[in-house]
Amino acid sequence: MGADKGKKLKAADKNDEENAEQIDGDLVLSIEKLQETQDELEKLNVDRRGNSSAKPSFASIYKSLSKTTQINEKASDEVLEVEKKYNEIRKPVYDKRNEIIKSIPEFWLTAFLSHPALSELVTEEDHKIFKYLSSIEVEDSKDVKSGYSITFNFNPNPYFEDTKLTKTFTFLDEGTTKVTATSIKWKEGMGVPNGVDGEKKGNKRAHGEESFFSWFSETQQSDDEIHDEVAEIIKEDLWPNPLTYFNNEADEEDFEVDEDDEEGKGEGSDDDDDEEDDEENGEEDD
């Protein structure tokens, strides 16, 4: 009986090890697929830049148009057409990338926390919510120049009813920017008034205590062009290649270890210098 029980335990341990190896293998495979998809996007971006510079013929524009304003308008229209074309080409690749990302646990949380600017905006409470974030989408308006939207897609979660949070920036003809965003439907006891945003100090909340999700409530409109730094970072930096920041976590840990090693070496050198000074002082006394 004892021998049979021992065999069963060994078999169970072996199954656990095989399952762990399978999970690790699947994760590595997902990251490799994600890198392949990201490489495909990078190639499209390179092609777009090359196409944009070749298209239009600026020499012919300068010859046919006499006014600088007309030239600029024509050039801008050509560039927008190229951008619209490549947005359509990139869309299915971005969709494919999102599907791969869904198979990687806490991908977006890791990418945000590894980003030097965005990490400062995510509180400890936000970490729990970000674990339910399944995908992010950044979409230009159809004509590209009218604005863009940023959408966060969530799995069902205990924090709010919404599965999609969107913030949209629309550039109007009169030079103003219209900002609209999803009004988050927090579940009972989970909303901003219950601590997700931290407490305000006076009229302004301390930067480190402000929840990332308060960004969706910032929809002020101004006569000047609205400068939304968070939106610009997501659109221009994180969204094009989030894998860069997802992989940063390991790089930062290595960097910290290297720094510790250097400090240790420095302390050792100081001790050696002190010993040499003591020896020299002893010789002078003699």
Automatic annotation (TrEMBL):
Recorded GO CC terms: nucleus
Ranges for region Disordered: 1-23, 240-286
Compositional bias (Basic and acidic residues): 1-14
GO molecular function: histone binding
Highest taxon of source: Eukaryota
Stretches with biased composition (Acidic residues): 249-286
Protein name per UniProt: Uncharacterized protein
Protein source organism: Carnegiea gigantea
